[in-house]
Amino acid sequence: MDAVTMLQDVVPPQIPEGASSMTILVEWPPGDPGNPPHRHSGPAFGYVIEGELLFELEGEPERVVKAGETFWEPGGDVIHYQDGNARTDVPCRFLVTMLCAPGRPMLTLVDEEELGRRTHLRAPRPAN
């Protein structure tokens, strides 16, 4: 099939009965740091439409996801540290489809106390 290009193929965790799904469009202006550290109740699958996304999950080094590339995260207990615009000169736009655990919010912010307790789980920071 010439009209189809595989962008991402991952095995998500089991999806509980009663879970919901939502697809959102996120648009960060140039230099926007994105959401503060948070977690999602279920897995999330994303595609960068425009610009570059600074992306960091707990236990993984931060990385830049460019337009045309995908990302995913398992959700659950994993902290999502960064999802901001990696560029100061152009906007960043990306689509995310998220699966939400029944009866739980899609996004929960992580407080400073918990971040402190989990410092050992965060990948080393790049030297500035």
Key terms:
128 residues; 3-stranded antiparallel sheet; 4-stranded antiparallel sheet; mainly beta
Query: Unreliable stretches, pLDDT < 50, 5 or more residues?
Result: none
Please write the string of helix (H) and strand (E) elements: EEEEEEEEEH
Radius of gyration: 15 Å
Report the total helices.
1
Coarse structural class: mainly beta
Helix content: under 10%
Overall pLDDT confidence: 92
Strand line-up of the largest beta sheet: 1-8-3-6
Protein described:
The structure is a single chain. This protein is mostly beta strands and 128 residues long. It is built from one helix and nine strands, in the order βββββββββα. It has one helix at 112-117, and strands at residues 20-28, 38-40, 44-50, 52-57, 63-66, 70-73, 80-85, 92-100, 107-109. The strands form three sheets. It has a four-stranded antiparallel β-sheet with strand order 1-8-3-6, with no helix packed on it. Strand 4 and strand 5 (63-66) form a beta hairpin. The longest helix is centred in the last third of the chain and has 6 residues, at 112-117. The protein is globular, with a radius of gyration of 15 Å. The mean pLDDT is 92.
Structure summary:
By secondary structure, this protein is mainly β. It is built from 1 helix and 9 strands.
List the helices and strands and how they pair.
Blueprint: E1 20-28, E2 38-40, E3 44-50, E4 52-57, E5 63-66, E6 70-73, E7 80-85, E8 92-100, E9 107-109, H1 112-117
Antiparallel strand pairs: 1-8, 2-9, 3-6, 3-8, 4-5, 4-7
